[in-house]
Amino acid sequence: MDTIKINTLNGYGTTIAANLYLPDAFDSTQQYPALVVSHPGGGVKEQTAGLYARHLASHGLVTIAFDRSFQGASSGEPRQLENPHISTEDISAVVDYLTTLPYIDRDRIGAMGICAGAGYTANAAINDRRIKAIGTVSAVNIGQMFRNGWENTIKDADAAGLLEHGSQARTNDANSPDLATIPLAPLRREDAPNAELEQAWEYYHTPRCQHPNAPGFTLARNLNQIITYDAYHKAEAFLTQPTLCVAGSEAGSKWMSEDLIARAASQDKSLHLVQGANHMDLYDGDAAVNEAVAALGAFFQAKL
To answer: How far apart are CA 69 and CA 59, in angstroms?
Structure first.
């Protein structure tokens, strides 16, 4: 694994921190397919994104897990900004970097992401034709999740109050050095609304996988971008690349993977359900991750 810094041309002046994973018996004189791996909302590259990047490198891919702008070891202020448009652009910025490496085949670059990183991956592929295939794990369209709830039980219009909250947060931020924040996963065990999201608290806030660069919250001002954001916008027309979605059969978020498959224009798309798994099992559960990696590894080997 090589730790690198990517000076982006994304218009925001940020430097992206990333870990690059090379396949076994790597030969710098050869050319390889590459894969950009995007982390969940509130996460960092050292957690599940790095786990998938490391495993998928063993399938003959050069993989790169990165911290989004304003998060982790990447630069940018204010910290913990989760503007979805910038998060999508970051994926293309990492693709920019890959095209500068002589051992990367520019015609064989793919992308995958976990949770919100999966939604950003879909959005990036809709916009960026250099991305030739995409994979998702426990996909979350962050706009849908905030508007419609974890299990799609809230109507869009009923989320209007969150826009008011985000607007007031911007006023607060303009008048106070203490920026208003909101959780991206439960910050306390007792805040979890169900057992599945209690695992999210455990993942981010206990030795299971906590990391000092992943505090688990974002800025409340982001609600003004998130509530109206659709990671799958125009997928019906422009998401033509081969697409594989991996989700747990018991995941409350499964509907967002199903929605992506339904909306994608691609004629080569499929949903792989890991039986008995929930959303969080696919982050670091040995059996669930091994099944997901096997499916994704075969997919990217065939499509890139």
So the answer is: 28
